[in-house]
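debug: dumping io for the single-chain case to check the tokenizer round-trip. Nothing else runs in this session.
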Amino acid sequence: MGADPGKLHVVSNGCDGNLFFVRDCTVARRELNVPAEAELIVFVGRMNRTKGIGELFESAAALFGKRPHLRVVYVGDGPGLAAIQEKTRAGGLTSRIFFAGACSSLQVAKWLAASNCLALPSYAEGCPNAVIEALSCGRPVVATSVGSTSELVDRRCGVLVPPRQVAALTDALDATLSAEWDENAIAHRFRREWDQVAQEVFAVCEASRQPGQSRSLLPQSVFAN
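debug: decoded output
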């Protein structure tokens, strides 16, 4: 956009570490009425076409015959919800695909704990909170290589695919469900809380403060508790 790269500072998003951490999958599934044997793929985000919700539907439908215990839960609300619900009914998949609607952060954390993986096949992203939250919960991520997602996900914690590619997404989900993952290693590889984000923002503001400039001239939100 024409900005001087030397004046840019990237501060990635974080998550609430009091909510998003490695939890007991069995307990989470019991609380959410998820069968113990389920292979659960969770989507978390706004139900927009550009989040890849249609591609996820097609990929799941392609895997149901191969994986009888596969289940998909869409967590979120938005303009694309009704269309996916109708496709689910029309395809006779109401016992395999579920819709949790808009959830609190605590409920999102429970769904991630109950899952085998997060799927986020977006066409575009910034620094997606859903990916950070899933990794903090020790869950592998299948996502598209857009925005900052490639800075968060590598082969140690998930699989990246090109956007809008159903076949690639299907293969990635299949491989992720078949692999063995170390949830604690995933959680410790990228664990980033909002306190750390605030400290980095504060450091950038301090570094840019002119000699003699009062802190009162800096953004007040930096100093908010």
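debug: round-trip ok. Residues 220-225 have pLDDT under 50 and may be disordered.
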